[in-house]
Amino acid sequence: MKQKRADWKATQPALDPDKVVFIDETWARTNMTRRYGRSPRGERLVCPVPHGHWKTTTFVAALRADGLTAPMVIDGAMTGDLFVAYVKPILVPTLRPGDVVVMDNLICHKRVAAKQAIEAAGGQVLLLPPYSPDLNPIELAFSKLKGLLRAAGKRTIDGLWDFLGKAVDAFTPDECRRYIRHCGYGINTATMNLKRD
Length: 197
What we know:
Blueprint: H1 2-11, E1 20-29, E2 56-64, E3 67-75, H2 80-91, E4 100-103, H3 112-120, E5 124-127, H4 138-152, H5 157-167, H6 173-182, H7 189-192
Parallel strand pairs: 1-4, 4-5
Antiparallel strand pairs: 1-2, 2-3
Helix pairs in contact: 2-3, 4-5
């Protein structure tokens, strides 16, 4: 595993950040709440926290240098069939020729139909080394997303899904570039100097 990570890090400089698309999935629940709060000094913070059996949903998206894109919400856990159902109609239309799609080394990500669809769009698939979330910048975006979800406190599936759809706009191109740089991928200076409207 150590050698695979070293090999990956050696290839990072060759990857054009404007052509790399990082995809992953994360979970979300209707019982998400803030873990910490504030109260006057010496007083205990008391607030209601949901408990019980709550439904888990899966949120899958792609992170590029210009933002979070191709979002999809799944009722339940990700499977190989659902991953193909995400790649073909949701991810592939956002790809440009020459894009490199980077994803975790999971069984459901290794479906031949998903790889063929990406390659048919002119893209290439690269799998991260095992146990390497630190090399996938979308993990940083998901950390922010979960903070937003806890603050929003959506308690219904419809509310949660609606919030996830709108939360994609909370990720600016500058922020996404910083996530990519933080994980060791270089950013073209021409891209960094672009002015936003």
